[in-house]
Amino acid sequence: MAAASSVQESPQTLAGKETPQSRKKLQKAVHFFTDASSNLKVRGNVKLSLALETIVKESQANGLDQTHIIQLADVAASGRLADSTSSRLVKSLIPSVCVPEEAAVQCISWMCTNKPSHDLQALLLKWIILTFDLLDNTEQLHALYGIIFYFIENDTICPHACHLLYLLTRREDVTAHRVRRLLGVQRKVGTQPHITGLLSVYKVFAPHLVSLSLPATQRAYFKLADKAWLAAINGARDHIRARSGGEEGSSFHADLRHSTITETAMVRKRRKLDLVPDFQSTPLTTDREAEVMSKISIGQIKSFDEFLTNFDRLELPSQAAAVLRSPVLQHLLVCRRNHHTIHRLNFWLSQKLQIELMNSEGDSSRTEQLLQLLINFTDFIQESVPVCEQFLTKYLLTWNGSDYRPYILRLVSRFRIYPFQVLNDLVLEPLRTLFFCSSAYFKCQLLHALTELLRNYATLEIPRYREVASRQREQEEEAVLRGEKEIEGSTSGSSAGMFSTRVDYFDPLETVEKLVDFVEGMCSVALQMDQNHTLIMHHTLAFYEVVSSLYTRHSQPYLVVPSKSLAYRAVFGLDPVACSRLCQILCNYKHEFTALKASADKHQQWDKFKKKIVPFNSIILTLCNCLWRSKAFHPSNDHGVALATAEEMGIARPQEMFSMQGSLATVGFCKKFFEETQPSDKQVEPRMIKSAHKTVYMEFLRRERMAGLVNFLETFIRRSSSASASTTVDRSEPSIASQEVA
Length: 742
Description:
Radius of gyration: 38 Å
Strand content: under 5%
Distance between the termini: 83 Å
Number of strands: 4
Shape: elongated
Low-confidence stretches: 1-16, 246-273, 281-293, 638-647, 721-742
Largest sheet: 2 strands, parallel
Structural class: mainly alpha
Number of helices: 35
Mean pLDDT: 77
């Protein structure tokens, strides 16, 4: 290793360069303690005092090399010296280059003999913790993990043993019996920060083993009271890093990067900067272990070809949260689902969302970064994260509708499908409350989110739910055949989903139907409150564009026609684009009826959908009479726009007020049509466009991007073949039957 090879060089000082005289004094002092014939009594021992003062002075000024650290650590931990002398020696073990792992292993070995006192053992562990980032390696120390774990039974040593275990813990170290042992110690001594800290890292690696509820916010689990000692160690660390010149490729710094779980757990400033940790670029196993296990770290992959070639040998990193930032890890996790990594990711997200949103200190940029990474991840896997849904259902109850609005609504649109009552109580009702007391812009954003939610249900969630429910029933049937009674806790996965969850049995199309009714009710009230606001109208129509094509585009046998009031508001309003879009939506419904009638399962679903033909035909008949035949107030029109007669309303030519020539939405196009086709000095009016001219006028409307209106008339109006261009009598009729859509 680079750190080991640097021992051969002459070490540089922390406060200046060593002199031959000081080096000679230091060697003489170290020899005094290592010589078995030396008198090690404390009282009246001048030689011991001088040797100890020399070591303390030289370590603070220049630091100690590896050989001296190994020798002095062995003497201090052996129990040969008085505790006062051993304590001063341990505190003087400040490195000039790095700390040899052998010294830490010797300390643990002497602790197992129980020769040093408990206070001295605690001090030795504290020294290992303080110099942990300066160790030249940690593999041999990690091999003693099981031995160190047994020190938690001692009340004096337990806090420092938990801290050292916190730094050493890897995935393979978290086992059920260790979790039970920790919980037993906690029951005996009560809830202690150091035990909670070790349990928290265990829960990161194995959430299924630690069911204990941990604090929602991060806290200082481990405290170091000796600030002067810590300052001396930090000075040595800064000096070593300055000498190394920041070489990222050195194995010494590589060991520092993967020796702890993550630097964010130890350095508070780094935690503030790095919201989501980067995955480690070095493997967590030694070269020999990696060769035996045939594992390859993600950081060793340099090209896509290498990624494919070594796909089955790739080792997932310890930082489960790094999957949010790395596309490579996302591909690996989706293709090779690792349930332990998924559990750790869920636990990390639950803690981080709680900290950043519920207990935020005002740094919105960090929270926005986290939410955007989470959105990118859900878009990639095309699935919602269950723990994110659980958090949002709590957050929406207290959400003000303003904080992180685009991110929150985007996550809502990815929700899984639930029974409507559950979805309404947890998600829709809090949003409805905000909807009616917010601006038109917020209403539009929420309608867009609900439109995306409906599209997500139709394209992904309903097929996924049916697959999971089918597999879950098969598992339950197999369990019954085997005579197993405990089947409630089983979970079912899906080839189309990453997360394995147990689902309740319900009709997903019933949820969709009630969701459409819910959104339509909100839209109707919002259009009344905001006087047919243009943006709200268009977001409403965008929602119904999805509803009107659920079967032809997404193969979902579902059909709900819009209400009459909504259709009339769009067609007879001031906005020509809204009129055209609504007409095209009605054409889509015609295709839906036709496709459903001709589908193979029409005997199961058609009787249900057939009942919706009557209200749909009512809308079509009214619009055809108004737009094409100019008979909005005809006595035979039972479905007219108004019941009042023209005389009572006091409007001249009321029939033309809702026609395709003279309605508020199209009168501007009529004027432009006359400007292009009639002399400028000729007096014109909309009623001059007779039946013979309607074909030309419709082509003009198509050119003016009113294709929806033209398609509606061409779809639902059956024009007489005998009518000629010179005929002034309208012989066309709406192609509407009493019970069928022609």
